[in-house]
Amino acid sequence: MYPTPLSESSLGVQKSPPAMTSAEMTCVVKSVKIAAGGSCGHTRTSDFDELTKAVLEDAITVYKGHLFTEGAFLEHSEEYDVAVQSFIFICKTWNIQMDIDDDLMKLITQCSSQAHGDCKSKACPLVPLAFGIGMDKPIHDMQNINPIIQMVLNVIWFKNKNDEGAMNPNFLKDRIPLPVIALVFTVIECCLDEWQTRQHVDVQFTAAGYKNKYEEHLKILQEYDKQMKDAGIIPKLHQSLAKQAQKCANIVDKPTAHTVQIDNVDLKAAKKDWEDFDDSNEDKEGNKDED
Predict the structure, then answer these.
(1) Which end of the chain is more exposed for a tag (fewer CB within 10 A), N or C?
(2) What is the reported pLDDT for 185?
(3) Please, where are the H alpha helices in the chain?
(4) Domain DUF6532 spans what residues (predicted)?
(5) 0.70 cut: is pTM over it?
(6) Which of 57, 90, 109 is a domain's end point?
(7) How far apart are CA 184 and CA 156, in angstroms?
(8) Residue 54: which domain range?
(9) Is residue 19 assigned to a domain?
(10) What pLDDT score was predicted for residue 35?
């Protein structure tokens, strides 16, 4: 019988039993390969036994949460470190001790590009419509930016209770981290870039093409937060996005989330909007729909 995952855990890198459990309570296991890899010799998830696959799957989920909430485009060495942290987080949660295997870490880090692509593919159907592409409206019509931020956030991470944002411990329980908002901006920008000629051209959402743009969006948001600290605009944005995302996911009781430390445009035109922002009307409309 496999160990049952625990509901609470602490993140930390270690190869010995964590302090929260005694050595007697920690199950020491080994990752077991049951196949020799694919046609080119590359390691696959299916090459491992069921327990290792289960740990790997959960570690990938936590790893992707780090990418979304802390830094979407990491250097290779940073990816490896985050993969190790995610793997050990799951081992501690399952109350097991498993060796850190390079093949397993590669399988985790390989999910980065897939995670980026999934974000863009989920947003692509929404962005052209929101910006009036094909309806003789300016592509970069900033009047459309507020609704599409929420729409993209919802469709990528909060479609239902079991979606990544609703379940992942790296998403905070009562606010959306700035790196997530910056990633949403960057995804929207990539989707718009596909229509610059008014004819759709596929643009890959890669680190080479969009890391600098992502970092610029994040920097602007952080600077704006500092400049408008007294007005509290960014905290309002944090909380409003989270509130509507949880509503979209039909989260009645907010899930318990681990506190994640984040180091956390030119949106001066939006200052008045956010100072006067009141989403009670949206809640009333939502309640009418439910009735």
Answers:
(1) N
(2) 95
(3) 50-70, 76-94, 102-109, 111-123, 127-130, 145-157, 164-167, 178-193, 207-227, 233-248, 271-275, 280-290
(4) 59-137, 146-223
(5) yes
(6) 109
(7) 9
(8) 27-109
(9) no
(10) 53
